[in-house]
Structures are given as structure tokens and as C-alpha cells.
Amino acid sequence: MHILQIYKDYPPVHGGIEGHLQLLSEGLAARGHRVTVLYVAPGSQGRHEWRNGVELIATPRLLTLARAPLSPALLWQAARCRPDLIHFHHPYPVGDLALLATRAPLVVTYHSDIVRQRVLGALTAPLIHHTLRRAACIITGSPALMQSSLWLAHHRERVRVVPFGLPPLPLPDPALVADMRRRFPGPNALFVGRLRYYKGVDRLVRAIALLPRGHAIIAGGDATVRGSDLVRLANALGVGERVHVLGAVDNATLRALYAIADVFVLPSVARSEAFGAVQIEAQMAGLPVICTELGTGTSYVTIHGRTGFVVPPDDPPALARALAELFANPARARALGMAGRERAMAEFRLERMLDRIEAVYAEIGNRA
């Protein structure tokens, strides 16, 4: 089967959707499908290449508006391709426009609502509704997002829940782990991810300031929030020596950080956090997770009292209480972490996700 994937970006651009798109595309290609990914290049020069068995067509970027890259060539390329099936990754309104020129059966992965760009969301609402009406199947990562999204309210009979999946983490380098333990003796709360407003990382800093002990390790590049602002906040709260803002780290360092952490924290504050796949990484590393209840998929990945704790968003005292509980009870923290690892290996493995995606594709093919 020739599958055309459409989204705005692709690695090496970092992000949860970008990472999922790469894993999905390369996984499907390894299973014998022909996979083409159509996206927008970071600059004004397009490119056409093959990488890890996947055909990548990057169209030139004209400009970026509200985090959406504009590329007229994307529309032309979408019309030019003749795939057996199109798999579109929402949200990307320019992609909705490009779909108007295509006729192949359509699958939409609905990653999240459009939350912050309300004007853009209102202007593009007719396009988005057209895409959702046309889709033979709509995929969401969790039942919670399917039930809570107003955009999906009229399409639930065509929604299929396919949780995101990741490959197992390689073992960390023992020497690097030992070095990290010397630098960060703990107890350590770890955050990993791009520093975006909806991640709520400043709430983690404020929670650490409410505790008499414990460190926050923050690993991730700047985006809509700057690491330097978090450092200033920590210093102002008197916990500068207990908050460590590392910036972006390589994979070897990341694996070592998972090994020395006592708990993983995803303190997100807005529905833009629709799943939080980084929680799966933490679970695979055996860590208990503290996440926030957003009415999306965060509390589907982390089950309160079973694999970690779920706390209200934008509530540093509640986050501090959960951290204090795990810092003071390492045996319970390990038990929650092991339960999370078992669930991640059973429910959130990459191979299981690929099986489920192929089943969606087969369902559409059987209707034809």
C-alpha cells in the first residue's frame, strides 16, 4: 500500500507529533508499505530524499503564521501524489486546504484541539470540519480526548482509539549514570520536553520551592518559554541551587537522566497537551509519573494511584504534595514505577501501535 503522510514538520524538527510521524512512517516502511511524507521544509529551499526507507518531500516555506508554515507548493504536491491512502496529522490548517485537491481515502490522526490560536481556529473551522466529515476514520490517542473534544462530537462513530507507542529504551551508559548521580544526588524530579507555555514547567519550579528538599532537573530546548526565565524564577524563589535547567540533551544523556531520576513530572496546564508520550518513555525507564488532569489523554497514560499520581493543573501546592509523598516513600515510588513499566510494555509498545494502525487501514480498505 502507498501511504501519503501529511504534516507541517518532520525530524530533525523536534516535537511530539514529529517524533510520532517518524516512528509511524519508518515502522510502516519496514513492514513493506511504500510511505511518502509530505511536509514543509524549515527554509525557503525544498528537498526530495529517501531516509530509512521513507520518501520525504519537503516543500519550500514561504512564511510562518501562528506556528503554521505556509507553502503553496504543498498544495500542488498533494494534488500530484496518487497514493492508495492519505494519513493526515491534525492540527495543520494548511494541510486541510491541501486535502481539498486529493481524492484518496483519508485517515486523520487528531493529535489535539487548536487551543491558543483561537482566531486561526475560527477562520479555519470550515476547513477542519470538512476534513473530519470526509475522513473514513479519525484516530485519537485516548478515549478521554475522543469524549472531551467538541470538534469530534459529531464524528465519534468514526473515531478509533490508537494509543501512541514507542520502542523500548536502550540501556544507559553506566559511567554516564554514575557521573549524573554525582552531579544530582537527589531526590530528583525530572521534566523532559520542549519548553512551551502549556508544559507548565514553572509550576514544577514553584512546587520545588514549597519543599524542604528535592531537586528539579529540566531537560529540553527553548520554545515559547526560555530556560533562562526558569533559572531567574528559581533564584527569585530561593531554590536556584535545586533547579537545574540543562537545555536540550542528547539521547545518551537523556537515558542517564531517566536512570537517576526518582519521579517524572509532566506539569502541563492546557489541552494542547493531549497525550504526553514522554510519560511512556519515563514509564519504560521504570519511573513513577506525576501528571495533571486536563481532560485529554494525560491521565490515560498515567493512572492515578497505580502508575503515579494525577494532580490538578496550575496547582503547585498539589504538585508539591505529590512530590513529597514519592520522595518520602521510595519503596512506593519504585512500585508505581514498575507498574508503569509493565503497562507501557503491554499497551504503549511501538509494534502494538503499528498493528492497530494497520488494522485501521484494513478497515478502510474493506469498505472500498
Automatic annotation (TrEMBL):
InterPro entries hit by this protein: Glyco_trans_1, Glyco_trans_4-like_N, Glycosyltransferase_grp1
Coiled-coil intervals, chain numbering: none
Span of domain Glycosyl transferase family: 189-343
Pfam short name (any one): Glycos_transf_1
Example GO molecular function: hexosyltransferase activity
Keywords: Transferase
Domain Glycosyltransferase subfamily 4-like N-terminal: 15-165
Domain of life per record: Bacteria
Protein name (database record): Glycosyl transferase family 1
